[in-house]
Each structure stands twice: as structure tokens, then as C-alpha cells.
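[step 3/7] fold_predict: job queued, chain A
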Amino acid sequence: MQRTRLSTLVDLFGQRFSQWIFNPWRRISLAIISLLFGNFFATAISATAGQTAEIDILIAAILVAAVEMISWLYHRSRTSGQRTTLPEMLNSFKLGMMYGLFVEAFKLGS
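[step 4/7] structure written:
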């Protein structure tokens, strides 16, 4: 494959981002942002799916499949020995989403 300016720019951006994210404080801050975004996503998805009350089963199936896929991806990346950022951020998003869904369930139950 030919080295174009665009491919060189993308490679350079990827290298600089991986160097930037190597700092533990930045990694933790991105994990916290992902956690909070997952919580927001859970609140938003439960509110929109609850309004129509027609696609609840489909939304639940999609969320379960997404949670299982994220768990599989995260644990697969951990067994390979590499520390990559994307599976860690997705796992934080998943944890925030699960927490948000539990909070929504407790709100509905009370």
C-alpha cells in the first residue's frame, strides 16, 4: 500500500494519541468520563424506550447483546497481554450503563 499524506497523518495521530493516553491520570479521567456517559446513556435509553412501551423487549435484547460483546472484547484484550485503551473505555461505559439501569429500576420500583 502506498504511503500517502493522509495515511501518514492518521498514523502520526494514532502514535501521538497513544503517547498522550499513556499518562495514568489521563487514562483514569477518560475512564471516569466513559462511566458517566454510560450512566447518561442508560437514563436516556430507558426514558425513550419507556415512552413508546412497544420496543422494550427489543431494546433489552440489544442492550444484553451489547453488554456481552463488550465483556467478551474486554476479557479477550486482557488475556492477550496488551493494554489497549478502547476496551477499557468500553468496559467503563458498560459499568456506567449497568449502574444507570439499576438506578432506573430502583426508581420505578419505589
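[step 5/7] annotate
The mean pLDDT is 88.
The CA atoms of residues 50 and 56 lie 7 Å apart.
exit 0
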